[in-house]
Specification:
The chain has 108 residues and is mainly α. It is built from 4 helices and no strands.
């Protein structure tokens, strides 16, 4: 991969950081929803949070695998001599954005 491609991947951490903030907000909102829907019943709260926790773990694993795939695809794009580096960056950012949107949707 080109040095430009390497630098691009390092800079993507900012994009991922923004998405992580959205995930944290979803976690906070879910905890509040579980608390209010459980009323005074601790077991209902535990059940709600446990179900959500399992969903998050599963979706996180899927996200990690898909991120690995996207990285390979981006590296392949950057290594093509006839492909514009800028086109590869735009495609990788779009793919990453769509991946996080789908991840957030799957948490709902």
């Amino acid at each position: 991969m080109s040095s430009e491609g390497d630098a691009f991947f390092k800079n993507l951490s900012g994009e991922i950081g923004k998405s992580e903030a959205n995930v944290l907000q979803t976690l906070v909102n879910t905890e509040k929803n579980c608390y209010f829907s459980a009323g005074d019943d601790c077991e209902k709260f535990v059940d709600c949070m446990t179900k959500f926790s399992k969903k998050v773990k599963r979706q996180q694993r899927i996200l990690d695998i898909k991120l690995g795939f996207l990285k390979i695809e981006a590296e392949k794009c950057f290594s093509k001599p006839n492909k514009s580096q800028e086109d590869c960056k735009v495609q990788a950012k779009n793919d990453l954005s769509q991946l996080f949107v789908k991840f957030m949707d799957n948490l709902k």
